[in-house]
């Protein structure tokens, strides 16, 4: 419903052409890489794959791709990772329609755009970098902490799934969310984090 409204809005501007839209994270990656739009609009919350994971994969495949997040999430736990992953813009769904159009135009011209409503969260994160890392572990769910411990112990996704009585797909979901929240990129960083945190020796 919301996506249809955004499409109708953008189609009313002659200088903006919509060349595709996706229903989930996996489809968005495939479509964006194929269409190579001037600006790709991404949400944080999407079925099958979250927007942050999709953005990381898209930027790895095409570093020149310009991405704008259009989302309801306005806390720094989402904003900061999105910008660190290389997103050119971040705007809230409750923003005025003309602000979205302005953001798209600015990014298409090679500029960055940040919703005024989230600027304070970004500045707070920049001025308190150690607080972010300190609190990140507390933001993990119980399942995510359990997955972190098991991965740090060297268990495979299959072994973790069997011990936690969940599917491999669910393990992968918890793993992706956990690594995003902690700002970790690979297994080496995860292991170092676990040792530093005292989760394993």
Automatic annotation (TrEMBL):
<dbReference type="InterPro" id="IPR001789">
    <property type="entry name" value="Sig_transdc_resp-reg_receiver"/>
</dbReference>
<dbReference type="GO" id="GO:0006355">
    <property type="term" value="P:regulation of DNA-templated transcription"/>
</dbReference>
<dbReference type="InterPro" id="IPR039420">
    <property type="entry name" value="WalR-like"/>
</dbReference>
<keyword id="KW-0597">Phosphoprotein</keyword>
<feature type="modified residue" description="4-aspartylphosphate">
    <location>
        <position position="43"/>
    </location>
</feature>
<dbReference type="InterPro" id="IPR011006">
    <property type="entry name" value="CheY-like_superfamily"/>
</dbReference>
<protein>
    <submittedName>
        <fullName>DNA-binding response regulator</fullName>
    </submittedName>
</protein>
<dbReference type="InterPro" id="IPR016032">
    <property type="entry name" value="Sig_transdc_resp-reg_C-effctor"/>
</dbReference>
<dbReference type="InterPro" id="IPR000792">
    <property type="entry name" value="Tscrpt_reg_LuxR_C"/>
</dbReference>
<dbReference type="InterPro" id="IPR058245">
    <property type="entry name" value="NreC/VraR/RcsB-like_REC"/>
</dbReference>
<keyword id="KW-0805">Transcription regulation</keyword>
<dbReference type="Pfam" id="PF00072">
    <property type="entry name" value="Response_reg"/>
</dbReference>
<feature type="domain" description="Response regulatory">
    <location>
        <begin position="1"/>
        <end position="108"/>
    </location>
</feature>
<feature type="domain" description="HTH luxR-type">
    <location>
        <begin position="133"/>
        <end position="198"/>
    </location>
</feature>
<dbReference type="GO" id="GO:0003677">
    <property type="term" value="F:DNA binding"/>
</dbReference>
<keyword id="KW-0238">DNA-binding</keyword>
<dbReference type="GO" id="GO:0000160">
    <property type="term" value="P:phosphorelay signal transduction system"/>
</dbReference>
<dbReference type="Pfam" id="PF00196">
    <property type="entry name" value="GerE"/>
</dbReference>
<keyword id="KW-0804">Transcription</keyword>
